[in-house]
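Task 17 of the worksheet. Students: predict the tertiary structure of the chain below and write it out as structure tokens. Keep your answer in the requested format; marks are given for formatting as well as content.
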Amino acid sequence: MPKQKTNRAAAKRFKQSAKGGFIGANAYTSHRFHGKTKKQRRQLRGTKMMDATTVKTYKKLLLTK
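Model answer:
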């Protein structure tokens, strides 16, 4: 039986934290900043923990236990 392959697109975008969550960049950060407040722009910088409802999907993509 062949080995399963890791989804390379997901591997480049998300990392698993020590406690099993996933860390990734924020959405809505590529353009149209004139429609966002300074507070929104500031809070979109850096990385954030992924929502718990999507962790199962990410684990499948990255083949983690």
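Marker's comment: The first strand starts at residue 14 and ends at 16. DSSP finds three helices and three strands in the chain.
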